[in-house]
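Students often ask why inverse folding is considered easier than folding. One informal answer: many sequences map to the same fold, so there is more than one right answer. In these notes we will look at a single instance of the problem. The structure comes first.
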């Protein structure tokens, strides 16, 4: 896992198909939402959205990255706080 830029991170899951990657990231999202954060006396929760793409579905790293980015924006446009799997034909 590493920061790509700004508030975006990339996660590489070796030997994991798209469906399992989606499941794993969704579980991470749910656990993250359960954490309690503090800023002074203020208690709050946070969430994140994910776009998932499988290298097996794309010819280049650039295509993979673009597909994951499209899926991320679909998650944000769909109400945020969710994981969206990119489909190769989109």
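Output (designed amino acids):
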């Amino acid at each position: 896992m590493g920061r790509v830029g700004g508030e975006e991170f990339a996660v590489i899951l070796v030997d994991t198909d798209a469906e399992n990657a989606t499941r794993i990231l969704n579980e991470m999202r749910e656990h993250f939402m359960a954490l309690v954060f503090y800023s002074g006396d203020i208690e709050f929760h946070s969430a994140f959205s994910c776009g998932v793409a499988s290298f097996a579905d794309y010819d280049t790293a650039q295509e993979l990255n673009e597909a994951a980015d499209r899926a991320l924006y679909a998650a944000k446009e769909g109400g945020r706080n969710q994981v969206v799997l990119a489909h190769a034909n989109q």
